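Handout, section B. The chain below has 554 residues.
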Amino acid sequence: MPTVDDILEHIGEFNFFQKQTFFLLALLSAAFTPIYVGIVFLAFTPDHRCLSPGVAELSRRCGWSLAEELNYTAPGPGAAGEASPHQCRRYEVDWNQSALSCADPLAGLAANRSHLPLGPCRHGWVYETPGSSIVTEFNLVCASSWMLDLFQSAVNVGFFIGSVGIGYIADRFGRKLCLLVTILINAASGLLLAVSPNYTWVLIFRLIQGLVSKAGWLIGYILITEFVGLSYRRTVGIVYQMAFTVGLLALVGVAYVLPHWRWLQLTVSLPNVFFLLYYWCIPESPRWLISQNKNAKAMRIIKHIAKKNGKSLPTSLQSLRPDEEADEKLNPSFLDLVRTPQIRKHTLILMYNWFTSSVLYQGLIMHMGLAGSNFYLDFFYSALVEFPAALLIILTIDRLGRRYPWAASNMVAGVACLASVFIPDDLQWLKVTVACLGRMGITMAYEMVCLVNAELYPTFIRNLGVLVCSSMCDIGGIITPFLVYRLTNVWHELPLLVFAVIGLVAGVLVLLLPETKGKALPETIDEAENMQRPRKNKEKMIYLQVKKVDNPLN
């Protein structure tokens, strides 16, 4: 029986239909960026100080500059590594009393400022920013700073739950239905987040966005890889992820123009409303329909693809029937990911590599910090690093296969982290160069794990397999801030040492996976189990439709 890949060779592996569908889904990929990294702009924490009634009036009367005002009225700097006292503490002084002088207003109250009592910021804060963020609007600083951590954790918790739950639904009820549902919920929650009256509602809608947004992005990835032919599958997978990087660059521009978080949130949520039009633009995956024994519907979509591509479907390929093991509709189960030995090995290694990619990708950014004073330019430059990573994958993946570039990228990231530990601080240029090399390596690994994950599972559990394994990157996203900041308190370079070990182990484990270069997507569990064995070269097979004619004997 011909496979979908065999049929696509005749009706077009990447013609007009696939290009149109890819463009539409790439827009979806770019629109996921504000949810994944939007906290950088939505919840930035500017420099701030306690609001003390009377200080502003005294400053105007005395003609102080901002530096002089802070010097005369705010507590001095604290110990290294601690927040400045003026951010969370204030002098318990009545600044409205007329006896205060402009030369040194506190001199008449105490001979030494350290003897003056300090108190909490009872009247709020003053933020040094022309815009606004969730932090400035809801005062998520000092004693309430943990609420910002909760805001970020809620997104990753949503990613984790949504990836597993919606992945099962997508394999059970179809890619298209699940994609449209996630788009609808994402659009509604994003718009409601922009008008949320308080922090509680902001947290709730952010959690809802996490539940559906990442799952929708991954379903789009699955759809496009199932629509294109074998020879184009890896390219569209990589470029689909590059669309996310384009979204990073676009987000910087939008955030620069709209420094107020509510307007920014509203603007980045509006595209999801237009994505609902995909109901009329993107059909269901024929591969999924065949796996569910819905061959008539699959054939109608295949004919639609052929018509869009201006091709004719040969008569010999117009009769589809299920594989022998698919006589009954296959329903995906979580146990299918670990029931058989090879798929179980694939699942465990893929889960670890998703975890590694997330921890190193986010951890390196957190540890290195922003190089320079221009917040927007720093983010822009860090996003540009991801384009050479994608280019290296495209140049090597067809020549060397998947395994070796993937293993090497993990090892390069690990070695870069290890090397950074021993580079002295006075060689800052070398530290930055090695850090960029590590960022490029782990970016390659991140893109590779997404590509290969879809190639190692049979059709009826492919979506479930990708989403369950990728949920480990959400676990990594939850623990990475604690891993970086807690270990840094012990030794500044200790997180890099941990990253080095994690990355090197991931590189070794990748070598235990089968090579998927030039292989058709497995349709059944048997095909997935036997991927390391040579398969028949289907490209040279010819399918003939033979009609038996009974001739009566004369």
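Note. Residues 78-83, 322-328, 536-554 have pLDDT under 50 and may be disordered. Compare this with the example in section A.
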